[in-house]
Amino acid sequence: MTAAGPAGTAPRPAGRRITAGRVALLLSTIAGSYWVANVVTGWLARLLVAAAGWQNGEATILSCLIGIIVCAALVVWVFAHRSPIRACLALLAWGAIATGVGWVVPDSFGLVAMGPPA
Amino acid sequence: MSGGSRREALTWLHRWLGLALGALLFAIFWMGTLAVFDREIDRWMMPSTRLAPTGAPLSADTVWQRFRAEATGSPLWVLTLPSEREPVARVQFAPVDSAARAIRIYGSHKGIPLPRERLAILLIDPANGAVLPDPGTRGATGFFFPFHWHLMLGEGSVGQWIVGLAGLAMLISILSGLIVHRDLFTQFFTLRAAKRGGRLTLDLHNAAGVLALPFHVAITFSGLAIFYFLYLPAPLEHTHQGGERQLFVESRSGYSRPKAGRPGEMASLDAMIARAETLWGGGRAARVSITYPGDVAAYVQVTRTVEDRVVNDPRPVYFDAASGTLLKFAPIRPVASAQRYIAGLHFTGFNHWLLRWLYFIFGLLGCAVIATGGLFWLQRQRKTGGPSRALAAAEAAIVASTTGLIGATVAYLLANRLLPPGGSERAEAEVVVFGLAWVAFAAHAVLRGRAAWREQCAMIAAGGLAAVACNAWLTGDNLVRTLGRGDWAVGGTDLVLLIGAALAGWSALRLGRAAPARANLVTRASAR
Fold it and tell me: Which residues pair with B287 in a beta bridge?
């Protein structure tokens, strides 16, 4: 199956366009998953310290270990979703919201200072 | 999305992650598998260190007195005591005024940057404290192991990030593979050895993947968990303002204080070791480090061996260097302990030969899973798409990254036996030989197409046999002699090389028989 290319050029195979689109989706998904996992683990670490009274080091290690699994699971979740493109967009939106909340509301819930790192 | 199309999307994810990062993953798995026996390969590559274990413990004070003048002013002085797997002691420091002592470039130590170009690593005979001649090689601990975790691009470099990305891709591939290959158990018991081509390759891919699945999950996750602070920096920035050292001091019961800049004395290191061993309540010391040797604020860290346990917790004990008084000894906290357990699963510091062999075999199975995945894709493309330039390039890349890498490793071992004696230049020459051999194997794969599989297998077989023969000829340590005296490090490396050569030779013969059969089929089809 082929699709018409720009005027005067040979038609491009549809399979190649689909693959290029999926590669872009994969890269966006990996970047988005990493972004979300990193921001959320940062929150989690501070939450454990501030709310549960954990030692800084302990909170850092646990949240990072969870973050690694979350990052991999998010990529699989996007591709297992009914619409991977929509799931990927949602992921990127979560990343933006999570980061934005941290910058705009530095003292969320009066519990954890989620502002940008000192 | 229906179940079918979900599975299709995940199959696509599994396939493309494998294809894009398969070569890199194979290299990481291959080097990691070799690093399981890095100390043993070191003995093979460094004949001067093939020493019989001595019963008497090495005096750290004697070794320190020997290097005191040179090490004073160095940021760090480290003595690694001999062990069952490594019968020589090792001293590391940055000499202030002795360019001649600079043997090998090694990097930093526990976050303390050491001047790379002037770092000395000296091997000590524990029987008499004599400095052994420079082995003139990085060995396996200085090449296979660092290649495994940072691709020889340096600690904290882009290489470590690339390895991290590959690890994440492996984890995603495993997760998606579990969903794609729904009938795991059925697939595990399905090996249609009589079938040829794609079907057999896929069966091998599935069987090897399922057999070592827990290992692959554990080893991939633990590899990522070792450098958690690097790969996910946000928590560290929130809790420690980006201070890695502060995190280690806190979570691993570390200790640190600044240099005073005034000269100081040194109390007995042997007494500190004895005190540390009492505090541990069992287990012997593995390493003694002096931070700022010769300074009044110098402190000594004594760490425990981890060869009798899985958890990679060396339980550091800190002493004031001048007085020998205890500065700090505290157990690490539960989460840090869990992380060290996960890291220990990856490091295989423990002395358990059956487990070590299982790690080696499962590591090879990991290599097989990655290679057969690429091969299956290739065979399917050949069937559905026919020959094309892109397919030829993909095949060359797969050949170069699998048999080419194995061939380059054999060339590295051969260079170790054949290059004339020398110091650090010789060690670097071996690495250059490895790189050139890999490039040559890649060029051969491009030029020879499908025939490259067979020819490279034959070259690996010949190289493996030559390495064993050269070892026997140049060091006098033939298999009968090494196994006769119970030297399993050298004898075992020879044996594995022979088994590898036999397998490569068998593969070359099998592929040689398959090639004319394929040609006959094509001839018959075109005649029709």
Answer: B80, B303
- Classified as helix, coil or strand, B127 is coil
Is B198 strand, coil or helix?
helix
Cβ-defined contact of A26 to B6 (cutoff 8 Å): no
**Tens digits of pLDDT across chain A (118 residues):** 344 444 445 555 555 666 788 889 999 999 999 999 998 898 889 888 888 888 889 999 999 999 999 999 999 999 999 899 999 999 999 988 888 876 666 544 433 444 444 3
Phi-psi label, residue B507: left if phi above 0, alpha if psi -120 to 50, beta otherwise: alpha
Q: By C-alpha distance, which of B395, B391, B392 is closest to B404? A: B395
Nearest-CA neighbor of B49 among B60, B40, B37? B40
Identify the closest residue of chain A to B176 by CA–CA distance. Answer: A76
Contact of B213 with B157, CB cutoff 8 Å: no
Residue type, A80: A
The structure's pTM equals 0.88
Is residue B504 within 8 Å of B461, Cβ to Cβ?
A: yes
**Which residues, 6+ apart, have CB-to-CB distance to B431 below 8 Å?**
B138, B143, B152, B412
* B33-to-B154, B177, B490 alpha-carbon distances in Å: 20, 22, 17
Q: If you measure CA to CA, which chain A residue comes closest to B253?
A: A57
- How many whole angstroms separate alpha carbon B245 and alpha carbon B364? 35
Determine, for residues A60 and B234 on separate chains, whether the beta-carbon distance falls below 8 Å. no
Between CA B378 and CA B120, with CA B412 as vertex, the angle to 5 degrees is 130
CA separation for the pair A6, B182 (Å, rounded): 43
How far away is chain B from the Cα of A6, in angstroms, using its nearest Cα?
A: 24
**Confidence check: pLDDT of B432 > 70:** yes
SS3 B296: coil
For chain B, what are the domain ranges?
1-19+148-247+333-384, 50-136+253-331, 387-528
Helix, strand, or coil (residue A2): strand
Radius of gyration over every alpha carbon of chain B, rounded to an integer in angstroms: 25
Q: CA B293, CA B274: separation in Å to the nearest integer?
A: 20
Q: Which residues contact A19 (CB under 8 A, 6 or more apart)?
A: none
User: Which sequence spans correspond to the domains of chain A?
Assistant: 24-103
Chains A and B: how many Cβ contacts under 8 Å? 128
Residue B501 C-alpha, separation from nearest chain A C-alpha, in angstroms: 38
Assigned token pair, B295? 């300074």
What ipTM goes with this model?
A: 0.85
CB neighbours of B499 closer than 8 A, spacing ≥ 6? none
Q: Determine the residue of chain A that is closest to B234 in CA distance.
A: A42
B224 contact A CB<8A: yes
Instruction: Please list the residues that pair with B405 across neighbouring strands.
Output: none
Q: Are the C-beta atoms of residues A52 and A112 closer than 8 Å to each other?
A: no
Q: Which residues pair with B77 in a beta bridge?
A: B93, B290
CA distance A43 to chain B (A): 7
Q: What is the DSSP letter of B72?
A: T
Distance of CA B110 to the CA centre of its chain: 18
CB-based contact, B333 to chain A, within 8 Å: yes
Pairwise CA distance, residues B93 & B119, whole Å:
6
